[in-house]
Specification:
By secondary structure, the protein is of the alpha+beta class. The chain has one domain: 2-Layer Sandwich (Alpha-Beta Plaits).
């Protein structure tokens, strides 16, 4: 199942409403599940990014739609990349 890692930065709106960040994260988790997207992990970080989101979905479009809707809410901006575990990467290399 394709896996995506999204690096998250709060927008000004998100920074102002930071105390509700975990509540919004729970709501996102439920909405993603309804769309057939599994949230493997949500982490808040310190440094250049404010958070990391790890997402799995059978269909790329479902995952990207959820992430686009997350950004459209205006609290965060995401930078998303496809991620591969060792077995998946080895399969790519041996083709």
């Amino acid at each position: 199942m394709p896996r995506y890692i999204s690096l998250i930065r709060f927008t000004e709106k998100g920074a102002q409403a930071i105390k509700k960040s975990t509540t919004r994260a729970s709501a996102f988790d439920r909405a993603a599940a309804k769309a057939g997207v599994r949230i493997e992990g949500q982490y808040w970080t310190v440094g250049a990014y404010d958070g990391v989101l790890i997402v799995n979905a059978r269909e790329e479009q479902s995952a990207l739609r959820c992430l686009a809707e997350l950004s459209a809410a205006g609290f965060v901006r995401t930078e998303t990349m496809r991620a591969f575990n060792a077995g998946e990467f080895q399969a790519i290399l041996t083709r």
